[in-house]
Amino acid sequence: MDGFQGNTGVIVIAATNRPDVLDAALLRPGRFDRQILVDYPDYKGRLEILKVHARNKKLDDSVSLETIARRTPGLAGADLASLLNEAAILTARRHKGAIGNLEIADALDRVKIGMPKRPLTDSIEKCKTAYHEIGHALLQTLLPNTDPLDKVTIVPRSGGIMGFSASVPDEEVGLETRAKILDIITATLGGRACEEVVFGREEVDDGAGSDLQKVTRLARLMATQLGMTDLGLAAWESPNNEVFLGRDLMPTNDYSEDLARRIDRQIRAIAGECYTKAKHILQEHRPLVDRLVEELLERETLDGEEFRKLVAAHTAVPEKPLVGAKF
Ligand code: ZN
């Protein structure tokens, strides 16, 4: 690679996940001319990866790799391999002859969220967790622009997760409207909002930390990259979601302190408005919230379909297309 003579017929291939720290000399023309970003696999990619890992496993006839592929946006090849391995382990532990849809669904929760732990026994903590998760689940069901609810549970998971409320995933790419992002923010704030509505402001706890991080991230995205706020049509930050490529070390913003303050104000305004809306909807359906919590405390996990039925007995539920079919 000295550049003095052309070594025709020699192709040098290299891989890195830190292209940002490569020496400029290495990237000059004639050295590495093509750069190919290997991103997370899309639906077709996931399906092919699943086929490879399913080869040496016995799957029940009802299991469809297409369905699994559709429900796993955001998972990398290693995650998909581990998904099928976990499912195989669960199958053996349950003394079944072939991996069924139940094992796949449980394995997916393990891979995406964490290992289940013993159910909560502390009744106060369990009750608060139930209200928090019902807050998310109810808003996700009643708001017209969010993805449909897949399940809500208060079985704790490893990593300090007390419970979760998950949606049927949409393909990772796709045009998100302003209305959809706002509804996602509102549903994400639903957990904390429900705690406040039910237990009062003094009783909210530290369980909403990751919710608030997600809200801030989405609101910042709206203000600084998508031109969806009063700050107008400008992008002051570029997408740095490729953190695994080391771009988080690069300066991500080069705007003035004044603009930074205005961005912060927009983020706070979005979060504030959505929080008010979340509280309002939950207050409006207070008896339903109690009813749903009762059911969740008793059964610990409710799937999306059951949940929608319970809600529909009290109020109108907006219709949403189910992107990934049910396991
Ligand atoms: Zn939450």
Which terms would index this structure?
three-stranded antiparallel beta sheet; Methane Monooxygenase Hydroxylase, Chain G, domain 1; globular; Helicase, Ruva Protein, domain 3; 3 strands; 2 domains; binds zinc ion; 10 helices
Question: What would a concise description of this structure say?
Answer:
The protein is mainly α. The chain contains 10 helices and 3 strands, in the order αααααββααααβα. The protein has 2 domains: 43-112, Helicase, Ruva Protein, domain 3; 124-312, Peptidase M41 (Methane Monooxygenase Hydroxylase, Chain G, domain 1, Up-down Bundle).
Report on this model:
The protein has 327 residues and is mainly α. It folds into 2 domains: 43-112, Orthogonal Bundle (Helicase, Ruva Protein, domain 3); 124-312, Peptidase M41 (Methane Monooxygenase Hydroxylase, Chain G, domain 1). 48% of the residues lie in helices and 4% in strands. The protein is globular and about 80 Å long. Residues 241-247 have low confidence and may be disordered. The chain binds zinc ion. Zinc ion is lined by residues 132, 136, 191, 208, 211.
